[in-house]
């Protein structure tokens, strides 16, 4: 199984990118995970949706090649960051590689709500007609990392045991969903 991982934050040492790296390391025997960057994608322009710039074409082809997609989102102003929404808008028009794609949503924030609002919005976006992803059900599978600054150590490792248990259980559910 090959998983494309997208972080909704493009900053260096983003907790959400670190979370993806944690999952990559912990599940390296079960699946390959590649972090696909979205920071070079131009702003979505509907006039270009059928013949997008090369960087967008290559992003869409990359996503199409993977068995599943894992999205780790921060929360910006109670919703998903614009940079993540922008990437999903490109994926939703012209060639639409997300349709039916197994997707898992996770997220980390420094607040006590742990991206709850952002994840709810993201799930709604992922069910829009142009995306129509096959999203892992949240029941028992939510990964809402609160107070991220206390859960990752100085080297960027997710060290909080209780959080790691939640991550492992949810990612295992995703693995089972994708592999029947
Ligand atoms: C523009 C902006 C808006 C934010 N809004 C929220 C918010 O609504 N809820 C929240 O929990 N954290 C919010 N935060 C704090 C983020 O949780 C924090 O910056 C987090 O580290 C971002 O994820 P990252 O580490 O992956 O970049 C906001 C941060 C920024 C820069």
H/E topology pattern: EHEHEHEHEEHH
Helix/strand-derived class? alpha/beta
Which percent bin holds the helix content? Answer: 25-40%
Which small-molecule species are bound to the chains here? flavin mononucleotide
How many separate helices?
A: 6
Shape: globular
Rg, Å, rounded: 15 Å
CATH T-level topology? Rossmann fold
Q: Count all strands and give the number.
A: 6
Question: Which SSEs are present, and which pair or pack?
Answer:
Blueprint: E1 2-7, H1 15-26, E2 32-35, H2 54-65, E3 68-73, H3 82-91, E4 102-108, H4 116-126, E5 134-135, E6 144-145, H5 148-151, H6 161-178
Parallel strand pairs: 1-2, 1-3, 3-4, 4-5, 4-6
Bound molecules: flavin mononucleotide (FMN).
Flavin mononucleotide binds next to α1.
Family: Belongs to the azoreductase type 2 family.
InterPro entries: Flavoprotein-like_sf (IPR029039), FMN_Rdtase-like_dom (IPR005025), NAD(P)H-dep_reductase (IPR050712)
Pfam families: FMN_red
